[in-house]
């Protein structure tokens, strides 16, 4: 993976990213079709709970906050735009997040309707890719997505480390960059082998890191960037900033606590 993570993006990476997204769309469609052919036709149908309480309900918040970590790539996306402006970045982010929301919603809804209350972890454990050709093709696409996505997602992590140690990614030696990426890949492999459930990752990373990066830090940056007061920004931005901060604190405290409590 180290050799697959260059310091500069290129057209090949963009092409792989596009193909990865096509496979994800296919897998979501396959989940909808599988649910219509199996879970929705089952007699009796799987147990469906409209509402839930306790730690199960709270832990879902961390998974939701996890999605806001996507803004780690905001600066690189801004630099790669042909005519970068804050408005164009906002519109592009809105469209992309909207598409991702639709895919997540369909996958979550029809996956739950297909298996009911048995769906407590990853949906990939519930299908049989050997006997079901449609889902088997989807699993191949997911495997491709993971391989491509791992290298692409490593880029902002690597850049964050370089920023902390004051290293310029554009002038850093290739072999040193390869060693850093290989070490991060090794850590990811060890974590994948010993972490018992993906929900633990979503809970801890989403609740703790997502709460800080997606909510608390942005609100503090707005508050302390200068010329920020009720009279200068108005009621809407003033209350929205505090609302963002409060949501982040709730996410960090309750999201992290629920993930730890669920594993004890």
UniProtKB/TrEMBL annotation:
Keywords, sorted A to Z: Membrane, Transmembrane, Transmembrane helix
Transmembrane intervals: 12-36, 48-69, 89-113, 133-155, 175-195, 202-223, 235-257
Amino acid transporter transmembrane domain ranges (all copies): 21-260
Topology in the lipid bilayer: Multi-pass membrane protein
Top-level taxon of origin: Eukaryota
Recorded coiled-coil stretches: none
Pfam families named in the record: Aa_trans (PF01490)
GO annotations of cellular component type: cytoplasm; membrane
GO molecular function, a single term: L-amino acid transmembrane transporter activity
Subcellular location: Membrane
Protein name per its UniProtKB record: Putative amino acid permease
Gene of this entry: AAT23.1
